[in-house]
């Protein structure tokens, strides 16, 4: 039963959505953007839930990934798909520079990562020969035509980002279920005791940071080739930090699918409902949502709904 | 060359004065509640915009707007406190995200009401320059902000060391349980620290409006800067905050003078990272380690 449902969901996601919205590129574009946020939100949740670290600097990984991939494909002629993976790798490499921050906790880690994000943004602006500086990069190669499907278009982009998000969520799930996940959960409860029994806590945290950075970098690289344009203020914009956090908190960052559903809900609501009402300050609604979730249901919406439905089932039994 | 350097040092010193008033508020609240209020810079920003509204709409001198700004900022600060004190589980992570959200609400609220334009006082007196010893230039506003900020911080310093309530704030910062057993009311003391932080934020906001320019995104910048300064200082030392703030101010103005204005933020950030990694408990003997 579960498998059939899952299969149906996949068919709807891969075939139904493009068929339904293929004629309305605007809506499909919004969904692609929402999935882009979803990818970062999954990466953020992985670091927050498993690593126990709040990051205010995921824009850094997003930016490094997008510039890495764009520069590789434009200046060195690397084909787009390998370039996207290398972009993710570049972001993971950038996270190595952040390793010293791992011994910081709570607010110190969060703001140290924010400082890194600022530094990367300034570097991208100043390294004009490679990144094109503040003027940005124009006409970044788009995704190629593969098996008769134009991956450079809206529908192709949708299929690619959907696959990236699904794979990221599966990776998150796999890590969570693994022995690593157990060790990380134990670390969340009491780090000292976990270290005493021989869990290499710093290595595990570093691995989570690198994985989170890699996913975010791949998503950033996808976005660069999808919109085919980059500039530092856009690639390192705090939007890439704020929206994923709101999405992950809203959906429930301790679940695998919460961040994805949260991103879809938040981004589409934001663009279709709040932006027309409040053209300039529509992010205010995100702030309200963040505060409301933390105060009313800190676990997020998905666990709250699940609790409710299982509660009802018990009542019936 | 020497003149240029001296001028940079002097401007940095003056900037450090108002950075310090922002940072001391953040540090006080962190002391009593162990929470970094990520909406602190937005409180400063709110005060600046109230001064702007009072001046542009009613032709009021920005300094005269301080009582009104204090009332508004104090109220908002109390709301922040009330919301924060409702957090029960995962306090460290959730308080960060909650205050982050409040900051987003305030920034976008200000953006909605006053638009994204850059504002500065229209009162010419504040922008008249003052020449000291024939070589050092400063605007009247900068001098007023520096002297006023120093006086305010001296008052807070005295209060922390000599009044019963001020000592209660320090007691709560150093050992919450022991302080409570000695008859310190934790809630009352926390509220007090939030109110003092609001007072300092109000003053800093008006100072920035008269001496610099304000725009909605500034709040976030100020929060980060204040955090960097408290890390440099080591939590729980007011004179450390003052020295850290002046250091940041001077480094920034030297960077602007000799390198490029676009690198201004970079210098502070790099210093912050270096200090975090080399000496996580700050430069001025914070007793408590910031890191594990």
Automatic annotation (TrEMBL), chain A:
The chain crosses the membrane at residues 25-47, 54-74, 80-99, 106-124, 156-175, 206-228, 234-253, 284-305. InterPro entries: ABC_transp_permease, LivM-like. The keyword Membrane applies. It comes from the Bacteria. Its main location: membrane. It is found in: Cell membrane. GO terms for molecular function: branched-chain amino acid transmembrane transporter activity. It holds the Pfam family BPD_transp_2. GO terms for cellular component: plasma membrane. PANTHER family: HIGH-AFFINITY BRANCHED-CHAIN AMINO ACID TRANSPORT SYSTEM PERMEASE (PTHR30482), HIGH-AFFINITY BRANCHED-CHAIN AMINO ACID TRANSPORT SYSTEM PERMEASE PROTEIN LIVM (PTHR30482:SF20). This is Branched-chain amino acid ABC transporter permease. The lineage of its organism: Bacteria, Pseudomonadati, Pseudomonadota, Alphaproteobacteria, Rhodospirillales.
From TrEMBL, chain B:
The keyword Transcription does not apply. It is a multi-pass membrane protein. The chain crosses the membrane at residues 6-28, 64-84, 96-116, 136-160, 191-209, 215-234, 241-260, 266-286. GO terms for biological process: amino acid transport. It comes from the Bacteria. Keywords: Amino-acid transport, Cell membrane, Membrane, Transmembrane, Transmembrane helix, Transport. This is Branched-chain amino acid ABC transporter permease. The lineage of its organism: Bacteria, Pseudomonadati, Pseudomonadota, Alphaproteobacteria, Rhodospirillales.
């Amino acid at each position: 039963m579960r498998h059939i449902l899952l299969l149906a969901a996949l068919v709807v996601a891969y075939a139904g959505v493009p068929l339904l919205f293929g004629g309305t590129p605007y809506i499909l574009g919004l969904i692609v953007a929402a999935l882009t946020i979803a990818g970062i939100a999954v990466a953020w949740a992985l670091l927050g839930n498993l690593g126990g670290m709040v990051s205010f600097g995921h824009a850094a990984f997003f930016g490094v990934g997008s510039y890495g991939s764009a520069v590789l494909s434009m200046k060195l002629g690397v084909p787009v798909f390998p370039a996207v993976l290398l972009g993710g790798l570049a972001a993971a490499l950038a996270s190595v520079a952040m390793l010293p921050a791992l011994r910081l906790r709570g607010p110190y880690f969060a703001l140290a990562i924010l400082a890194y994000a600022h530094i990367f943004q300034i570097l991208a602006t100043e390294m004009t020969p490679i990144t094109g500086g503040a003027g940005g990069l124009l006409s970044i190669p788009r995704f190629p035509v593969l098996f008769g499907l134009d991956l450079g278009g809206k529908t192709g982009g949708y299929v690619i980002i959907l696959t990236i998000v699904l794979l990221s969520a599966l990776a998150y799930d796999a890590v969570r279920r693994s022995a690593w996940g157990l060790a990380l959960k134990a670390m969340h409860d009491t780090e000292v005791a976990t270290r005493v029994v021989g869990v290499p806590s710093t290595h595990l945290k570093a691995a989570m940071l690198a994985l989170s950075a890699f996913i975010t970098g791949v998503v950033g690289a996808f976005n660069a080739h999808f919109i085919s344009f980059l500039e530092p203020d856009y690639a390192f914009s705090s939007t890439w930090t704020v929206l994923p956090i709101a999405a992950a908190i809203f959906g429930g960052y301790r679940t695998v699918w919460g961040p994805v559903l949260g991103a879809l809900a938040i981004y589409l609501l934001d663009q279709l409902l709040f932006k027309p009402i409040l053209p300039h300050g529509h992010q205010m609604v995100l702030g309200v949502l963040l505060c409301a979730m933390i105060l009313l249901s800190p676990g997020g919406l998905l666990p709250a709904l699940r609790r409710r439905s299982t509660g009802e089932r018990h009542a019936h039994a | 060359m020497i003149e240029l350097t001296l001028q940079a040092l002097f401007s940095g010193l003056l900037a450090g004065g108002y950075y310090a008033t922002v940072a001391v508020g953040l540090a006080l609240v962190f002391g009593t509640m162990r929470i970094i209020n990520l909406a602190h810079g937005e409180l400063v920003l709110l005060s600046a915009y109230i001064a702007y509204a009072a001046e542009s709409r009613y032709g009021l001198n920005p300094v005269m707007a301080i009582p009104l700004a204090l009332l508004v900022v104090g109220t908002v600060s109390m709301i922040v406190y009330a919301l924060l004190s409702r957090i029960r589980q995962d306090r460290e992570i959730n308080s960060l995200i909650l205050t982050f959200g409040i900051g987003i609400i305030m920034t976008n609220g200000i953006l909605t009401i006053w638009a994204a334009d850059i504002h500065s006082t229209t009162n010419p007196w504040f922008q008249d320059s003052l020449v000291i010893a024939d070589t050092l230039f400063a605007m009247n506003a900068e001098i007023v902000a520096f002297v006023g900020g120093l006086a305010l911080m001296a008052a807070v310093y005295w209060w922390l060391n000599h009044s019963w309530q001020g000592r209660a704030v320090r007691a709560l910062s150093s050992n919450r349980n022991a302080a409570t057993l000695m008859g310190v009311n934790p809630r009352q003391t926390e509220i007090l620290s939030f109110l003092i932080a609001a007072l300092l934020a109000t003053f800093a906001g008006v100072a920035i409006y008269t001496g610099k320019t304000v725009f909605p995104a500034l709040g976030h910048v100020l929060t980060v800067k204040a955090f960097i300064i408290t890390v440099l200082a080591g939590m729980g030392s007011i004179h450390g905050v003052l020295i850290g703030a002046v250091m940041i101010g001077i480094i920034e103005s030297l960077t602007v003078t000799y390198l490029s204005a676009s690198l201004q933020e970079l210098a502070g950030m790099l210093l912050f990272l270096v200090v975090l990694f080399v000496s996580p408990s700050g430069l001025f003997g914070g007793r408590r380690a910031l890191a594990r």
